[in-house]
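Dear colleague,

Thank you for sharing your sequence with our group. We've completed the structure prediction you requested, and as agreed, I am returning the results in plain text so they can be pasted directly into your records. Please verify that the sequence below matches your submission; if there's any discrepancy, let me know and we will rerun it promptly.
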Amino acid sequence: MALFSIQRVPGKGNGVIAASKITKGTRIHAESPFITLPKLDEAPNAKALNDAVLKQLRSASRGDQRAFFSLGNIHGKTLPIPLGIVQTNALAYGPGGEGGVFLMGSQFNHDCLPSARTKWNDHLHKMTVYALRDIEPGEEITITYINLETCDVRQKTLQDGFQFTCSCKACTLPEDICKEMDADIMEIKTIEGFLKSTTEPLEVCLRFAYRQRYLIESNALDFAHAPDTYELASTLAAIHKDYIRAKIFSERHLDIVTTEGGLDHPDTRKQRDMDDYLGSLLEQHHGPSVPYHFSVLGLEDWLWMQHLPEVKDLEEESSEDVESSDEAREVWSEDEDGDMPAFDVETLD
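Please find the predicted structure tokens below.
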């Protein structure tokens, strides 16, 4: 039984609609490119590119040709029709910057908070689409065309590149809530930059990472190409030789990459190897075990080091490290209402 069908979607043209319930982590579709395009740095001029597209079209079946010419074309008469269709529907794939048109994959519409994700599988030589969450029958299956950005940036990017105004849930929030979400997105991105370059002690890093994960989850940004906090946290814990935390974060990251790309994706295999390696390091060093006697909340506090005293009370801290750690830690002190305060960029200067 087919998982989806192509139907007209009001205001969007064609779209992909779930034919039955699709559970999180299901491979919805896998497809090789119908038209392949050169890498961005090798792109020929418009005429040469159009000729290359026509050459591939001539060798295709009549059915595939009809399917190609039924795809959308936002360029009208400003470009030759084949090239206009390519420019409208091409998707980037592969590590080398290749691009291509997928007869079925190009039918998936955009949402800033999508229900599915496209990912090139170099092992299969196909673009795959996996469900990021449970999708109900009759629901449109969407992907995102852009990275995580604030609302104004998203709208400009989509208007400039695809000539439409996004009216998804994230883009039609009330103005005050939209501004709050934009502020959270900027904070998420700032924390990512900090975590990728910091030399602060692990407890400081994990408290900022905890803040980032909190912002991602509270705004339902897990599916919007948000940073994978677990991958960052695992790397930082491993650098600090805290292999038990590195292993737990690695397991959570493995769950995410498996959901996005499946068990046979090279990224999943690579992460599984890393997870096994961290497990072997943990056995070699006989580090502390997970305190399973904790409650769920207690375990999370332990994992993200929310239970530790101030950095200045920890041993083997230099006075310089203590000063910078204390400044960062002040960001994490709760306000009078017990709410988690915002990430203060000034503490990173």
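Summary note from our side: The chain has two domains: 4-162, 174-348.

Kind regards,
the structure core
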